[in-house]
Amino acid sequence: QGDRDLANKQVLISAGGTREHFDPVRFIGNPATGKMGIAIAQAAVHRGARVTMVHGPMNVEMVETLSEVTLVSVTTAQQMSDAMLSLFPAANLTIMAAAVADVRPTAYHPEKLPKRSLPQQLDLETVPDIVAQLAQKKRPDQHLVGFAAQTGDILAPAWEKLQRKNLDAIVANPIDQPGAGFGSDTNQAILLDRHGKKQNISGCTKLQLAHHLLDFIDFSPITL
Ligand code: C5P
């Protein structure tokens, strides 16, 4: 990868998972740790970009490894959505690496529920699709990348997501393989872009995958 090749670029990254609480201590969430988003932030800083990272709750020591990154800490998908939508217009490249909780409880109890009052069932609603909302606001000079964490076949669902969400590229991530996915320091992926360009990245560190991804993205303006 060319050093400082992102010198004039503003890169916006989402990282980690969101939490959808139904009382102050209980939530629906997922196992995302933020390691992939952090690796992308490190790679982008190394290549000279100005980087902002919107992140869900994550390990403080991991966040402290980041220098020169503007951090925006959020908890819920709605907060992540608000932050991403307001930061998006200034970004040349946006990479949505966060694992957004797909559903949230419809009710929130501001006081901790005693065990005897805990609901035996939760009413849920789907959270808004952040990356799809960003895609609707995307200018031709902006690039938008998503992730598709998959088990089993990864290629067909990732291609379907890229098209449905109107993304420029997607990282198809086989989370059921050893040394890939949530919490791991290593990963593997297939990178796909909207023109059908495809690159297989076999077992490597998340930082190496981040650099492969930044190499893969074609920064020329998109002609519609
Ligand atoms: O549909 P799925 O969750 O597999 O899509 C994954 C991609 O969409 C990721 O880039 C993720 O950050 C993004 N996403 C989102 N908002 C959601 C759900 C997923 O931006 N509510």
Automatic annotation (TrEMBL):
Pathway: Cofactor biosynthesis; coenzyme A biosynthesis; CoA from (R)-pantothenate: step 2/5; Cofactor biosynthesis; coenzyme A biosynthesis; CoA from (R)-pantothenate: step 3/5
Region spans: Phosphopantothenate--cysteine ligase: 11-224
Domain of life: Bacteria
Binding site for CTP: 102, 112, 128-131, 147, 161, 165
Listed GO MF terms: ligase activity
Enzyme Commission numbers on file: 4.1.1.36, 6.3.2.5
Free-text remark on how the cofactor is bound: Binds 1 FMN per subunit.
Keywords: Decarboxylase, Flavoprotein, FMN, Ligase, Lyase, Magnesium, Metal-binding, Multifunctional enzyme
Requisite cofactors: FMN; Mg(2+)
Keyword Iron-sulfur: no
Family of this protein: In the N-terminal section; belongs to the HFCD (homo-oligomeric flavin containing Cys decarboxylase) superfamily.
Protein function: Catalyzes two steps in the biosynthesis of coenzyme A. In the first step cysteine is conjugated to 4'-phosphopantothenate to form 4-phosphopantothenoylcysteine, in the latter compound is decarboxylated to form 4'-phosphopantotheine. Catalyzes two sequential steps in the biosynthesis of coenzyme A. In the first step cysteine is conjugated to 4'-phosphopantothenate to form 4-phosphopantothenoylcysteine. In the second step the latter compound is decarboxylated to form 4'-phosphopantotheine.
Protein name, UniProt field: Coenzyme A biosynthesis bifunctional protein CoaBC
Organism: Limnospira platensis NIES-46
Gene: dfp
First and last residues shown, out of full length: 195 to 418 of 418
